[in-house]
Design brief:
It is a single chain. The protein starts with a helix and ends with a helix. It has about 300 residues and is α/β, with parallel strands linked by helices. The protein has a domain at about 45-90 and about 150-300: Phosphatidylinositol (PI) phosphodiesterase (TIM Barrel). The chain is about 35% helix and about 15% strand. Residues about 1-45 have low confidence and may be disordered. It has an eight-stranded parallel beta barrel, surrounded by six helices. The chain has helices spanning about 1-25, 40-45, 65-75, 120, 140-145, 165-175, 190-200, 225-235, 250-260, 270-280, 290-300; strands at about 50-55, 80-85, 95, 155-160, 185, 205-210, 210-215, 220, 240, 260-265, 285.
Length: about 300
């Protein structure tokens, strides 16, 4: 009887060892192979505070695209400044929104930026139109604007001209003290976005879009599928969408996220719109009033 019991114990031990070896030999799939690696949409908290981007600086209070506006934006707590940039006739990158100087340097000689030299542009006063206290503000260069960006902050560089600016832009960005993740390029021109991604892949480059409503059907263009296709074709890092709440919804956000792209909105001065965009999970909100929009978003968390 004792001998039979010992034999039974030995048999059980052998079976357990054999099964253990079989189990150990099996390959257990990693989370990556199971497709469990988190996507952009999975890692973005819907309630996370979006970056506050100062549109042309703190342009509600100071003259747009001037050093005064950018410095004020930092004082008002912006995470990012956004500026518009053209290439002058003598290959200087200058900060201005319009193709000409007429609107922001009135009652002075008017120049088309691409046809003017830097010295000609620099003679103009770009501050007095906003307020006498800003009289004497000059058109800044890209290098001067980059130099205002503190550690841990960012700049959105909006390219307002064509691909001709890219070689000069590449050199000047490389010469700055900013890290690649502090610089984001943005543009409406799909050729510029595509070439920027090809030649300056170290920087994020976002494609910008606004919307048109068809007069007969009242449908908006571009549609979400068209936006997705453009992001694919340009290899854009993200979408910068106008704050048209007839076009923006969860489906758009999800479609952009599924591509692995970021999603950003401009130009948002309405606190209610800003709160909605935050709930939708937008990465950044561009505004003329960075202090007010931040205060509105902070109040929604209290």
């Amino acid at each position: 009887m004792r001998q039979n019991s010992l034999l039974w114990i030995r048999m059980c031990r052998s079976v357990c060892v054999a099964w253990g070896a079989i189990l150990c030999s099996l390959t257990i799939p990693s989370t990556a192979s199971l497709g469990a690696e988190p996507t952009v949409s999975a890692t973005k908290s819907v309630s996370a505070m979006p970056l506050i981007v100062a549109h042309r600086g703190a342009s509600h209070d100071a003259p747009e695209n001037t050093l005064a506006a950018f410095e004020l934006a930092w004082e008002q707590g912006a995470d990012v400044i956004e500026g518009d940039f053209y290439l002058s006739a003598d290959n200087q990158i200058v900060c201005l929104h319009d193709k000409t100087t007429t609107r922001t340097a009135p009652n002075q000689p008017s120049y088309t930026v691409s046809e003017a030299t830097f010295d000609q542009l620099r003679e103009l006063d770009f501050g007095a139109w906003k307020s006498p206290e800003y009289a004497g503000q000059k058109i800044p260069t890209l290098s001067e604007v980059l130099a205002t960006v503190p550690a841990g902050k960012k700049i959105f560089v909006e390219i307002k001209c064509g691909v001709e600016i890219l070689p000069v832009l590449k050199d000047q960005l490389a010469e700055s003290d900013l890290l690649p993740d502090q610089i984001v390029l943005i543009c409406f021109n799909t050729d510029v976005v595509k070439q920027a991604r090809q030649t300056m892949g170290q920087y994020q480059t976002n494609w910008l879009t606004s919307y048109r409503r068809h007069p007969d059907t009242q449908t908006l263009s571009p549609t979400t599928p068209a936006i997705v296709e453009t992001l694919r074709q340009t290899s854009a890092s993200g979408l910068g969408t106008k704050d048209d709440m007839d076009a923006i919804d969860a489906d758009l956000v999800n479609a952009v996220r599924e591509l692995g792209c970021g999603i950003h909105a401009w130009t948002v001065d309405n606190p209610t719109t800003a709160k909605t965009l935050r709930q939708l999970g937008f990465d950044s909100i561009t505004t003329n009033q960075p202090a007010n929009i931040r205060a509105a978003l902070n109040s929604s968390t209290n």
